[in-house]
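Note to self: keep these together.
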Amino acid sequence: MWLCESMKYKLLILALAISASQIKPIHCQGYLKADGKRIVEANGEEIILRGMGLGGWMLQEGYMLQINNQGMQHVIRARITELIGLENCDRFYDLWLQNHMTRADVDSMARWGFNSIRLPMHYNLFTLLIEDEPAKGRNTWLAKGFALTDSLLEWCRANNLYLILDLHAAPGGQGKDANISDYDETGENSNKWFTDCISLLEKNNIGWAWWPLKKINSAVCPLMIVAPKEYYQLVNYWNKNTEKPSRELAIEVLFTIVENMKTQQCRFNKDVIDAMFRQREDLSTLPYMINRIPGRIYAADFDMGYTGHAYFDTENENTGESGKKAGNKGRYYRNDGVDIGICRDSSGFTNGYNVMSVDDAEWLQFTVTAGSDDAYAILARVANNNSPEGIRLSWNMNSSSEPILIPITGGDQQWKTISLGEVNLAKGNNTLRLIVEKGGFNLNFIEFKRL
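Structure:
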């Protein structure tokens, strides 16, 4: 991007002003510096930066809001203004900045294992454009961006985290409509890819900063902002030019979203953090949920861990191959390679999701906790629109059932309960693997009933 000399000067002053804020003094734990190929702390010790980027906080990108075209922030803001009016839009953005990033978020990142935060900044929170300056040639600073950055610095200092400043939106724009530039080889991908990529980087003493901390209705980031279902009336209006939602509906939806941005309101995608940190060193599995039997175990709650240990899926990451997208094809609930979609089982027994698109030889592992030494009948809730398919069960890595046929149910959301046989289990934790002999069906849950 080409910048005129006066603009370059202004950006330099902006960077210096943030480092030594004019709003209030900050006394941090020190600066990092380069030492040859190493990054070192003030005491000379090498550090591997393990960071998370705050994409979407100071600078919105359309894809994070599920807006497919014209995703620049100024266009998003204009669209919101058109729906709810200028005054409500200004209030919406004030609450967005207030709730999207808080002390609780920084505390959480430190607890998960991050040692740094990358802050993507938008110039319009810090300074006016040159052409908007009331007195030509005089710098005009805006207090809001500095106050937000000062607060973030204080929270980082309290947690011994480094802050990386990134002028992500500079005056003059970043291009036409490329919200993000790391589409396929880096960026947001499946958990296996997170584990493998981070392991490779750290073996070569290379730090990393992932992206982003929060997104709307997304399983690919640590925290998911839960949007009400009516949000898609707004998204479809913006993406597909469908019927314009009412002002009242748009106000209710948008202000619900900014309330749901608070850390305690977000859904914690614990599998993402587990893949970034624990799974790089530890290939053991952990229960995703506490599955006590007798009782019902939902298929999407398979154990947490690396592929080949907690599950096996033939397409478990996006490799960047042309025309090929893999990982969780349904894009719901979890970021592992297992395909998960919305479950519409009319029985009402569902956690909202089912495993789908299973292929031959794929499998899921579950840790189940039996309350006593007992015999159990095993049932499964399945949907199948193909020829009869087959599965078998493996227990505690040393015994296996005969293949069990799954009948045609009449559709991939037409559900039927079938028997998977009986089993004797010891009190305590037991390991169940559900192995696909012939794929093509959907699975909602497995149920254990004491005989």
